């Protein structure tokens, strides 16, 4: 087998097998009592530190398979306070001192119990609750150490050398996406002492500025990564509502501006739909001015992009109108529409702050155009929203779908994939194209690493031998055909020469006679 094939096939296969092995290790903690899990997470943390966060995303993504007890993040002092206290009368009661024989007997019984417990612990794979909690806390500490190191590394956007040298998926910050996903999953286990620092870090990574004429910093993060920062901030906040007192208005402002920066051919629509669900769909009722600004921006967004993004935006828009009945005045396209009083008398579509946009002074004319959309799902949703203008404040239109923005985006994306026509090409036509084609495309290392290379060495050698044998046969056949054509043309020329010679002889004889 050639060295080039060995170099391109094995790394992707080894990476896939290693990832599956580590995930299996995390899922089956009963077989090793959790000790191997702690060691594996510590090795991942050491590898991230050693390579300066420039690793394949799968290195950190495997940690999403970890499982922790729900009460792991609770404070031990609170748990001790909740324990029932013993009666002081029984505690202070004088106990008669036991005799020497009874004392020796008790010591022997306690030693025997300890030996029995030690033997049972050695035979069984189950851990004591205290030991299990200690191991899980060590694992969690190593995991969050890795996550915070990745966040701090991502904040150093001035270091541009990774921008050019990074060959992993995710650009200059390949580990940021799985890190943010892990923080969102384990947000309820984060220590409260680090909450404010984490929120400040996420705000900086999202690219937030005060938008008061300040030039925005050179942010190397993509729009999808900045949206994920906003999502994680809200998940952390909702997981710790009782203890965390943080104003997330800045994240709403940043999300309001990131909607305009979204591009479907460059960014991930599923992340945007998740942001719509987390920031606008879930949680408490939005402020009227902020809700009106997002309603207007989502209507403009739905008119500008594809069906999947449009349906996620329209479902969120309808939800905001149901929660904020005063904003339904924006649905009236007559002279009185959009005349609700606000701080700003005129709508400013380029405003950076949703509170200063003046969206209540405008109307949702985009919905009239979306009624004529080529996709029936989008046009039906637009008509359903427009019907809210004729309803009372306490009434809601008939629900076309109870899905949230993320579910609607996934459903429509899957439906479009299934509805794509599949053109089958005959086998003979494929063979002809293979024989005629003389151009070869060099695949990048990223494509080769992502490919599932499960072909064995012997099977690959046989396929290569048969392939090149066919190529040699084709080239030999072409060479023989050219020689045959050359021989046939020579024979034809010789026959023509004989005919001309005979004709010249006859003409000479006729002239003599």
Instruction: Give average pLDDT, whole number.
Output: 79
Sheet/helix structural class: mainly alpha
SSE order, as H and E? HHHHHHHHHHHHHHHHHHHHH
List segments where confidence is low: pLDDT < 50 over at least 5 consecutive residues.
Answer: 158-165, 437-443
* β-strand amount: under 5%
Give me the count of strands. Answer: 0
The first-to-last residue Cα distance is: 81 Å
- Kindly state the percentage of residues in helix: 55-70%
Number of helices: 21
User: Radius of gyration in whole Å, from Cα?
Assistant: 36 Å
Largest sheet: none
The dominant shape is: flat
Can you offer a commentary on this structure?
With 513 residues, the protein is mainly α. Among the domains are: 16-69 and 104-159 and 169-189; 285-435, no CATH class. 61% of the residues lie in helices and 0% in strands.
Lay out the secondary structure.
Layout: H1 3-27, H2 35-50, H3 58-61, H4 76-82, H5 88-91, H6 100-123, H7 129-155, H8 161-165, H9 176-185, H10 195-205, H11 223-239, H12 249-261, H13 269-281, H14 288-304, H15 307-323, H16 366-370, H17 376-386, H18 405-418, H19 427-436, H20 445-450, H21 457-512
Helix pairs in contact: 2-7, 7-9, 7-10, 9-11, 10-11, 11-12, 11-13, 13-15, 13-18, 14-15, 15-17, 15-18
In short:
The chain has helices spanning 3-27, 35-50, 58-61, 76-82, 88-91, 100-123, 129-155, 161-165, 176-185, 195-205, 223-239, 249-261, 269-281, 288-304, 307-323, 366-370, 376-386, 405-418, 427-436, 445-450, 457-512.
């Amino acid at each position: 087998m050639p060295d080039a094939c060995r170099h391109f096939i094995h790394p992707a296969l080894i990476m896939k097998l290693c990832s599956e092995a580590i995930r299996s290790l995390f899922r089956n903690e009963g077989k090793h009592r959790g000790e191997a899990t702690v060691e594996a997470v510590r090795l991942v943390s050491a590898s991230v530190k050693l390579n300066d966060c420039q690793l394949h995303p799968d290195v950190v993504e495997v940690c999403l398979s970890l499982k922790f007890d729900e009460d792991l993040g609770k404070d031990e002092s609170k748990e001790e306070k909740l324990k029932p206290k013993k009666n002081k009368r029984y505690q202070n009661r004088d106990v008669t001192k036991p005799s020497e024989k009874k004392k020796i007997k008790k010591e022997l019984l306690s030693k025997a119990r300890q030996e029995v417990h030690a033997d049972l612990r050695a035979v069984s794979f189950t851990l004591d609750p205290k030991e299990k909690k200690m191991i899980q806390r060590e694992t969690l500490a190593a995991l969050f150490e890795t996550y915070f190191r990745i966040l701090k590394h991502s904040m150093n956007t001035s270091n541009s050398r990774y921008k050019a040298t990074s060959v992993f998926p995710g650009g200059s910050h390949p580990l940021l996406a799985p890190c943010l996903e892990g923080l969102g999953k384990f947000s309820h286990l984060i220590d409260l002492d680090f909450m404010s620092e984490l929120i400040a870090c996420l705000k900086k990574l999202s690219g937030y500025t005060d938008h008061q004429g300040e030039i925005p910093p050179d942010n190397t993060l993509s729009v999808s990564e900045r949206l994920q920062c906003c999502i994680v901030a809200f998940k952390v906040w909702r997981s710790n509502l009782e203890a965390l007192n943080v104003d997330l208005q800045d994240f709403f402002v940043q999300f309001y501006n990131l909607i305009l920066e979204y591009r479907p051919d460059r960014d991930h629509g599923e992340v945007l739909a998740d942001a719509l669900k987390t920031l606008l769909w879930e949680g408490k009722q939005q402020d009227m001015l902020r809700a009106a600004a997002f309603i207007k921006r989502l209507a403009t967004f739905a008119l500008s992009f594809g069906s999947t993004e449009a349906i996620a935006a329209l479902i969120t828009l309808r939800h905001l109108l149901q929660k904020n009945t005063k904003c339904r005045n924006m649905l009236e396209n007559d002279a009185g529409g959009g005349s609700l009083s606000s701080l700003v008398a005129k709508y400013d579509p380029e405003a950076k702050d949703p509170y200063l946009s003046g969206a209540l002074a405008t109307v949702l004319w985009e919905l009239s155009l979306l009624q004529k959309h080529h996709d029936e799902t989008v046009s039906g949703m637009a008509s359903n929203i427009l019907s809210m203008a004729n309803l009372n404040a306490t009434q809601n239109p008939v629900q076309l779908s109870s899905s949230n923005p993320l579910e609607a985006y996934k459903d429509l994306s899957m439906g479009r994939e299934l509805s794509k026509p599949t053109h089958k090409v005959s086998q003979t036509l494929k063979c002809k194209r293979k024989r005629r084609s003389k151009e070869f495309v060099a695949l990048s290392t990223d494509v080769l690493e992502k490919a599932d290379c499960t072909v064995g060495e012997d099977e690959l050698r046989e396929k290569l031998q048969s392939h090149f044998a066919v190529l040699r046969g084709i080239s030999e056949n072409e060479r023989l055909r050219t020689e045959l054509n050359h021989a046939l043309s020579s024979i034809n020329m010789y026959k023509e020469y004989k005919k001309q010679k005979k004709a010249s002889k006859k003409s000479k004889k006729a002239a003599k006679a």
